[in-house]
Amino acid sequence: MSQPAPRTITYAEAGVDTAAGDRAVELMKASVAATMTPEVVGGVGGFAGLVDVSALRGYRRPLLATSTDGVGTKVAIAQALDVHDTIGQDLVGMVVDDIVVVGARPLLMTDYIACGRVVPERVADIVRGVATACAAVGTPLLGGETAEHPGLLGPEEYDVAGAATGVVEADRVLGPERVRPGDVVLAMASSGLHSNGYSLVRRVIEHAGWSLERHVPDFGRTLGEELLEPTRLYTAVCLEAVEAADGAARAGGTTAPGVHALSHVTGGGLAANLARVLPAGTVAEVDRSTWVVPPVFETVRTLGSVPWDDLEATLNLGVGMVAVVDPGALEAVVAVAQAAGLPAWVLGEVHDAGGHEPRGRLVAGTKGVDGGAVDLVGDYRTA
């Protein structure tokens, strides 16, 4: 008795379209090429990206800084709206702005996109967003990968991740070791929710029954447009501020850095992230009344009856980056931010914990760091 002919199974039938992947690469090549700096060796398409680091010979003791991250469930908003050219900036902000916190200048970035089905135009949109943001911070997008995972992700689903490497002179590293009582805590405004807390935000929106197409007068645009507002990029401003502060410090007769620490306000909110860059034995008193909480945060709070304590432990509430600065360098740092059109204001001051009586909500021991503490005082102001 004859047996039926065996079924032929191809890679395409398994759900992987290599031709679509090649098409995606062709669509993104121009965007990626626009990020290339003179230090990049070779072009797009190699197994590995190369960058000339001969300039590091001029460093006394160069340290490499590295960071990796994603954008969390914000991708669900992009997928729901079929808008994919902004999520890349979120990725760059989440990765590169973590590197600058130690004072490092980014040298390169790579990205990774996992999707259930390669749609070349969609992948190219994502990468174009990454590339545009990389160009804005002077960082070449040196490599990447698009992986098709049928059966693991739905046809319209994807996730993104990235990694970056930077360099900083060893004796110019910023962090807790430089912070001391009397330092000023300076806030730099966020552009909105950035890329943290979207599980909370999406749950609140779902509970309220609001659609992403709903026009919200307080936002002046739709809910979806507000939720997709890209993460603000701080790298260029922070690097320039560090140089300006160093100049101010030299003018004051010292070679010590004028900016002592930076803190990128991401998951955990303002207090948890600021506490990470404070030394043990210090406390930063932060006045909540020094800024007006943007409408999107107040909307999330009221729609979900979210307690303020939970909100400030999850979202940035309008503060995206913090600088801990020597008082003598404060004016120089503020001037750099203002010249870049970035609102900046004094949040508070660092104190010796031994002589400080907490007046508000004390936050310490976060993110596994046994460092300083943050005392959140006053009340938030809303528009």
TrEMBL record:
<dbReference type="InterPro" id="IPR004733">
    <property type="entry name" value="PurM_cligase"/>
</dbReference>
<dbReference type="GO" id="GO:0004641">
    <property type="term" value="F:phosphoribosylformylglycinamidine cyclo-ligase activity"/>
</dbReference>
<keyword id="KW-0963">Cytoplasm</keyword>
<comment type="pathway">
    <text>Purine metabolism; IMP biosynthesis via de novo pathway; 5-amino-1-(5-phospho-D-ribosyl)imidazole from N(2)-formyl-N(1)-(5-phospho-D-ribosyl)glycinamide: step 2/2.</text>
</comment>
<dbReference type="GO" id="GO:0005829">
    <property type="term" value="C:cytosol"/>
</dbReference>
<feature type="domain" description="PurM-like C-terminal">
    <location>
        <begin position="180"/>
        <end position="356"/>
    </location>
</feature>
<feature type="domain" description="PurM-like N-terminal">
    <location>
        <begin position="64"/>
        <end position="168"/>
    </location>
</feature>
<keyword id="KW-0658">Purine biosynthesis</keyword>
<keyword id="KW-0067">ATP-binding</keyword>
<dbReference type="GO" id="GO:0004637">
    <property type="term" value="F:phosphoribosylamine-glycine ligase activity"/>
</dbReference>
<dbReference type="InterPro" id="IPR036921">
    <property type="entry name" value="PurM-like_N_sf"/>
</dbReference>
<dbReference type="GO" id="GO:0006189">
    <property type="term" value="P:'de novo' IMP biosynthetic process"/>
</dbReference>
<dbReference type="InterPro" id="IPR016188">
    <property type="entry name" value="PurM-like_N"/>
</dbReference>
<comment type="similarity">
    <text>Belongs to the AIR synthase family.</text>
</comment>
<dbReference type="Pfam" id="PF00586">
    <property type="entry name" value="AIRS"/>
</dbReference>
<dbReference type="GO" id="GO:0005524">
    <property type="term" value="F:ATP binding"/>
</dbReference>
<keyword id="KW-0436">Ligase</keyword>
<dbReference type="InterPro" id="IPR036676">
    <property type="entry name" value="PurM-like_C_sf"/>
</dbReference>
<keyword id="KW-0547">Nucleotide-binding</keyword>
<dbReference type="GO" id="GO:0046084">
    <property type="term" value="P:adenine biosynthetic process"/>
</dbReference>
<protein>
    <recommendedName>
        <fullName>Phosphoribosylformylglycinamidine cyclo-ligase</fullName>
        <ecNumber>6.3.3.1</ecNumber>
    </recommendedName>
</protein>
<dbReference type="InterPro" id="IPR010918">
    <property type="entry name" value="PurM-like_C_dom"/>
</dbReference>
<dbReference type="Pfam" id="PF02769">
    <property type="entry name" value="AIRS_C"/>
</dbReference>
